[in-house]
Amino acid sequence: MKIKKVKKDKAIKMPGENSCLRNRGIEYYRDDDILPAREYMDKVKVLLESLPYIKQYSGRIVVVKIGGSMMEDDSNMESMLNDLVLMKYVGIKVVLIHGGGKQITGMMKQKGITAKFIDGLRVTDREAVNIVRTVLMDEINSGIVSFLNSQEELAAGLSGADGNFINCSKKIYIKDGREVDLGFVGEIEYIDTSIIKDILDRSLIPVIATLGSDSCGNVYNINADTCASGLSIALGAKKMVLMTDVDGIMEEIDGGKRIISRLTARQCINMIEKGKISSGMIPKVKACIKALNEGVERTHILSGIRPHSILVEIFTDKGVGTMITGKDSE
Asked: Which of 35, 37, 116, 192 is 20 to 30 A away from residue 326, measured at CA?
């Protein structure tokens, strides 16, 4: 509740008060500032509901990956980034990872370059990888960090190629029994988390662009979901959240599609084998399964377009996306 301050040059006469109380710098509630009892209690219930989750995640690492069309809407991005700031201030160690596929394709089109994909993987030649670096670091990463630091220092931007902390090799991709050259597309070999932990120890949010490099200095583009999974594992994150354009994993039931609220990694594998998970969702689900198999406690897929979805998913009893757990008994 915001208390409106009384300006010195304007007097508000309160019921039953003498005019001698004017200009004392006293602040009053206006009639429309007093919350109705029901609304008051609703706010209290929300705060009380969030308490056990704040206790559970305070001091723990939560990796958040953003991507897709949610990054094209400035107001939506600002709302989501403010949610992450709130998470930081209740003690969660937030690590933010971003891709930028649509923005990269857009810049390539401006330069007259046709984007090429093989089974959803971007073919990244020398010219394309330079565009990837420019878009990810000079546009997206710097924009996110600038917004977060607009009031105070809250974030530090970097890519996995900085200090070679995400070490990559060239991805070997086999299609129809033959090796396909994807160019500068990276496969993560190992991650040196010291630079990320140093940023977290300074109470800042690391904002990481999905690039990596090899020992020869070659820079590689890394799939953002794969990068999020790798970092979650290396950092020992409690939770990984993949924010995308859709509400979560969908399943067709009684002729209509319904969002799955919760399922296990084993159930995800069964759905993939039965063709029940769409091709675009499969890389995200596989990234979640890998993270869970390597020690991450919870993974989530949810819409980054729905306002405040990450807060609802983390801090309330009923989430808005799909939570994937590692054990059938959870």
From this structure: 192
What's the domain count of the chain? 1
Query: Which ranges in 69-193 belong to alpha helices (H)?
Result: 74-89, 101-110, 126-133, 142-148
| Tens of pLDDT, residues 106-161 | 899 998 888 888 877 788 888 889 999 999 999 999 999 999 999 899 999 999 99
Beta-carbon contacts of 197 under 8 Å, excluding residues fewer than 6 positions away, are: 235
- Which CATH number fits the domain that encloses residue 258? 3.40.1160.10
156: containing domain: 58-325
Token pair, residue 240, equals 């990984």
Residue 246 lies in a domain: yes
**CA 323, CA 127: separation in Å to the nearest integer?**
39
107 found inside a domain: yes
pTM of the shown model: 0.86
Nearest to 321 by CA among 279, 286, 294, 285: 285
Q: Specify the DSSP element, H or E, that contains 286.
A: helix 282-293
For residues 209 and 160, is the Cβ–Cβ distance under 8 A? yes
Spell out the long-range contacts of 36-43 with Cβ–Cβ below 8 A and sequence spacing 24 or more: none
